Amino acid sequence: MTLALAADDRPYLPRGVRVVEDRVRGGKVLLAPEKAIALDAIGVAILSRVTGTASLAEIVADLAATYDAPEAQILEDVQRFMMGLRARMFLGVRP
Amino acid sequence: MNVLPPIAMLAELTHRCPLACPYCSNPTELQAAQDELDTETWADVFRQAADIGVLQLHLSGGEPASRRDIVELTAAARAAGLYTNLITSGIGLTPRRLDALEAAGLDHIQLSLQGTNADLADWIGGYKGGFERKMQVAHAIRERGIPLTLNAVMHRHNLDDLERTIEMAVELGARRLEVACVQFHGWATINRVQLMPTREQTEDAKRIVAEAEARLRGVLAFDFVPPDYYSDFPKACMGGWGSAGLNVTPNGTVLPCHAAETIPHLTFENVRHRTLSEIWYDGDAFNAYRGTDWLPETCQTCDRMEIDFGGCRCQALALVGDAGATDPVCRKSPQHFIVRDIVEAAASEDASDFVYRGKELERLGRRCQSKQA
């Protein structure tokens, strides 16, 4: 299957995957089965919009408006980030 | 040296286990039940771990479900803020206990797989009926939706079933499959001839995993640990000694890796006497092979120095007799011929019976008797 999300797809963090504060190192970290990934500001901005109800298109539009950046550029970044998570089964997708 | 906080902790809650896998990662000298830390001490260790930066906690053993307090320990780990993973054979996980673990906040289960059918799995695990119960547990995990990784420990006797193993992981609803080829420490070293895969099996495994990874993208994630005796370069054991992870044994001894006690000149400290923080940052055993300054010439001049940190200390000790040597798995190691010789010898030797974990003396005794006869 392709890992790329369609515009209408609604991404969500599946059970066993969550974002928490890293109270020792600072910042936020994505915790998943046997894995901890430190999130940069972009990762935090994307994942904070992954609610399970927002579609990819809505997430991209929100980010483009918030950061005053072209949607095409944002879409590319978000797609790459989400495909990476999906390959590791850290991100689920509802149509 | 700038020492970073640890990320992961392996808590070997007990060495007790109904299975007797001949490659068990527990030491050949197993600790007794009466020496195990009690519930409150473990809970304190979990809080200390979270306080020094640990994010991932692996509740392991032995069989962690052999602990009567596994649910309380899970709750304590979650209360400390740790991501809590149960590494189990499944034996002892009744539906009621799974419900209680779920309620306690267990995040994830890593279920071991000894083989793809009862005959093979029960022979390897040394426990009759184990496979059937494991399958029941796997279904119960799936019903509840608890995130599942299947950990298939692979070797000469089951690598030919790799494709079926992958199918099973999908059927059981696992999100992730570890194809973990046996690492030769402790019990596995005793059974090295029995367990050593052939070169052909190794090459097939790499191809099968690569194909399955592409085919199952988005369905099943893979972690592949190839047999390192056939590798060109060693694994970065623990991501570098004392750099990311630590291991606490049933009696509270803190180790840089699960096999570290095989290194005779190191002394290890115990959470009963010192804080986890002091042990991590100041403990002699943790500082012994930290960083890269101690590395031998072969590694100091190698562009992979910061990738594999000279490989595995325990393997260097076991094969070369010097824990400070380059891991002889590395093709650049002056002692690499030792690994080549072992692989060749294993290919030509007849594999005798397994020496099962926990039954070493009995088995060796029997073998000596049969030789005399």
From TrEMBL, chain A:
<comment type="pathway">
    <text>Cofactor biosynthesis; pyrroloquinoline quinone biosynthesis.</text>
</comment>
<protein>
    <submittedName>
        <fullName>Pyrroloquinoline quinone biosynthesis peptide chaperone PqqD</fullName>
    </submittedName>
</protein>
<dbReference type="InterPro" id="IPR041881">
    <property type="entry name" value="PqqD_sf"/>
</dbReference>
<dbReference type="Pfam" id="PF05402">
    <property type="entry name" value="PqqD"/>
</dbReference>
<comment type="subunit">
    <text>Monomer. Interacts with PqqE.</text>
</comment>
<keyword id="KW-0884">PQQ biosynthesis</keyword>
<dbReference type="InterPro" id="IPR008792">
    <property type="entry name" value="PQQD"/>
</dbReference>
<dbReference type="InterPro" id="IPR022479">
    <property type="entry name" value="PqqD_bac"/>
</dbReference>
From TrEMBL, chain B:
<dbReference type="InterPro" id="IPR058240">
    <property type="entry name" value="rSAM_sf"/>
</dbReference>
<comment type="pathway">
    <text>Cofactor biosynthesis; pyrroloquinoline quinone biosynthesis.</text>
</comment>
<dbReference type="InterPro" id="IPR050377">
    <property type="entry name" value="Radical_SAM_PqqE_MftC-like"/>
</dbReference>
<feature type="binding site">
    <location>
        <position position="24"/>
    </location>
    <ligand>
        <name>[4Fe-4S] cluster</name>
    </ligand>
</feature>
<dbReference type="InterPro" id="IPR013785">
    <property type="entry name" value="Aldolase_TIM"/>
</dbReference>
<keyword id="KW-0411">Iron-sulfur</keyword>
<feature type="binding site">
    <location>
        <position position="17"/>
    </location>
    <ligand>
        <name>[4Fe-4S] cluster</name>
    </ligand>
</feature>
<dbReference type="InterPro" id="IPR017200">
    <property type="entry name" value="PqqE-like"/>
</dbReference>
<feature type="domain" description="Radical SAM core">
    <location>
        <begin position="3"/>
        <end position="215"/>
    </location>
</feature>
<dbReference type="Pfam" id="PF13186">
    <property type="entry name" value="SPASM"/>
</dbReference>
<dbReference type="Pfam" id="PF04055">
    <property type="entry name" value="Radical_SAM"/>
</dbReference>
<comment type="subunit">
    <text>Interacts with PqqD. The interaction is necessary for activity of PqqE.</text>
</comment>
<feature type="binding site">
    <location>
        <position position="21"/>
    </location>
    <ligand>
        <name>[4Fe-4S] cluster</name>
    </ligand>
</feature>
<dbReference type="InterPro" id="IPR007197">
    <property type="entry name" value="rSAM"/>
</dbReference>
<keyword id="KW-0479">Metal-binding</keyword>
<keyword id="KW-0004">4Fe-4S</keyword>
<keyword id="KW-0884">PQQ biosynthesis</keyword>
<keyword id="KW-0560">Oxidoreductase</keyword>
<comment type="similarity">
    <text>Belongs to the radical SAM superfamily. PqqE family.</text>
</comment>
<dbReference type="InterPro" id="IPR023885">
    <property type="entry name" value="4Fe4S-binding_SPASM_dom"/>
</dbReference>
<keyword id="KW-0408">Iron</keyword>
<comment type="function">
    <text>Catalyzes the cross-linking of a glutamate residue and a tyrosine residue in the PqqA protein as part of the biosynthesis of pyrroloquinoline quinone (PQQ).</text>
</comment>
